Here is the input.
Amino acid sequence: MITKEELEELRKIWQEEHPGKEINDEQLLAMAQRLLTATEIIYRPIPKEKADKFRKIKTT
Here is the structure.
């Protein structure tokens, strides 16, 4: 769940990037949800087996 405080922080960031423009709450919430979804997809822990394999390749 995204809090009102988090949405307002995102609104401030958005307004810094888009001076003079406005974004409504519905658009802001949709953007926040897309951002969270993308973060969940991109930021996944590397399984130990793959990390160990990478370390072995890196040190040889």
